[in-house]
C-alpha cells in the first residue's frame, strides 16, 4: 500500500475509484490535475500497483520485461500525490448512503465515485475448459501461470484468432521451442475487426513464422485427466496439446453497477461527460458504454487510449468542470516486428483502398470508406499513414482515393487538397 495512513477526513471530500487498471491510474492523476484537494482512494483487487496491460501478451510473456517495468507510475507518484491504494474487493455500492462495502464488510463513504471496473475474459462453455493447463489471458497472474507451464510444453493450442490470440501466438513463436496452433471458428482471422485483405496478410505472416492456423473450425471439448492433453474438434479430430490458451473476447464487469441500479447496456451507460445515471458516479474504460456522435451509435471500446480519454473527462466532471469525450478511437497491436496502428472504426465500410501490397512484404495500409468518406485505417509498419489517417479522420477531409492508393503520392498534399471524389 502506498500513501495509506490514519485519516480523519469525512466522506464529503473523498473520491473513490474502483479499479486499478489504465482508467483508474489515469483518473487519480487527472483528479489532482483538475484540482481535487480531498482524499483519493483507489480500490483494486489485484495485489499490484496499476500496470500496463498490452505488454502482457508480448514482452511480459516473452520474459523481456518484469511487472516493475510495466508500472504505469512509480510508487513515489502515489505517495507524492497523496493517493491511497487498497488491495481489496468491493462487494456492493449503496447509492443512497453514498458508500461502498468491501468483501470483509467494511463500509467507506464517498463524495464522488468512479467505476473503472474493466472487463474479464469471456469463458468458453465446453467440457474440459477448467482443466489444469487451460489458461485465459487478462492480467499478470494469468501470464505467470502460462509462463510456468511452458517449461515442459511442446504443443500449444490457442482458441481464438483475434488480436489477443495472434499476439500470444507471435510471442510464443518468438520464444521458440513450442509448436503453436491457432483455432478460429470464423472463416478468417480477425474477421470481426478487419477487411479480408488485412486478414490474409496476418494469416500469411503467421504461417511464415511457423504458426498453424485453422479457421472455420468448431471446438467441441478440451480433453485430459489431471491436466490438458488435447483439444477435440467438432468433426472428431483430436489436436494434441500440453497447454491451451483461450482468447475469445471479453465481457464488461457491470455486476456492481447493475446491483446498484445504474443503467447498463453492453457496459455501464455514461453520457458524454462520463456520468452514469447517478450524478455522483462516473465510469470509464472497458466497462463503459457511450454514444459517439462521429459514428452515430452507442459503443463500448476496449483500448488503452479510450480508457485514458474517458478517465480525463470523468475526472474533470467529478471536479465540476465537465468536458466531453471527443477523441477519435485508435488502437494498436504488436506481432513479431509488426506494429499495427488503427485509427477510427471501420463498422459498415463499403470500400477499401490499399497503399502498399499486403500480399508481399510486411508494410502496408488499408483505408476504409463508407459512402465515399474515409472512416478508418489499419496501418502496418506505416507510422506516416497512421498520422495522416488521424488528421484526415479528425478533420473529415475528403480524400482522393486514386491518389491515396498511389504510394508515391504525398500524404501532406492529400490533406491540403480536398477532393471531389466521393463516388
Give the tags.
11 helices, five-stranded parallel sheet, 29% strand, 423 residues, 26 strands, 24% helix, disordered N terminus, alpha/beta
What is the fold's blueprint, element by element?
Layout: E1 14-18, H1 22-33, E2 39-44, H2 67-70, H3 75-80, E3 83-87, E4 90-94, E5 99-102, E6 107-109, E7 112-115, E8 119-121, E9 134-136, H4 140-149, E10 155-159, H5 163-175, E11 179-184, H6 196-208, E12 212-215, E13 219-224, E14 228-233, E15 238-240, E16 243-246, E17 250-252, H7 255-259, E18 268-269, E19 281-283, E20 288-292, E21 297-299, H8 304-318, E22 330-335, E23 338-344, E24 351-355, E25 364-370, E26 373-380, H9 383-395, H10 401-405, H11 411-416
Parallel strand pairs: 1-2, 1-7, 2-3, 7-19, 9-16, 10-11, 10-16, 11-12, 18-20
Antiparallel strand pairs: 4-5, 5-6, 8-17, 13-14, 14-15, 20-21, 22-23, 23-26, 24-25, 25-26
Helix pairs in contact: 1-8
Quick overview of this protein structure:
The chain is an alpha/beta fold. The protein has helices spanning 22-33, 67-70, 75-80, 140-149, 163-175, 196-208, 255-259, 304-318, 383-395, 401-405, 411-416, and strands spanning 14-18, 39-44, 83-87, 90-94, 99-102, 107-109, 112-115, 119-121, 134-136, 155-159, 179-184, 212-215, 219-224, 228-233, 238-240, 243-246, 250-252, 268-269, 281-283, 288-292, 297-299, 330-335, 338-344, 351-355, 364-370, 373-380. It is built from eleven helices and 26 strands.
List low-confidence stretches: 1-10, 419-423
The general outline is globular
Structural class: alpha/beta
The biggest sheet, with number of strands, parallel, antiparallel or mixed sense and barrel status, is: 5 strands, parallel
Distance between the termini: 59 Å
Q: Over all CA atoms, what is the radius of gyration?
A: 23 Å
Q: Approximately how much helix is present in the residues?
A: 10-25%
Per DSSP E runs of 2 or more residues, the count of β-strands stands at: 26
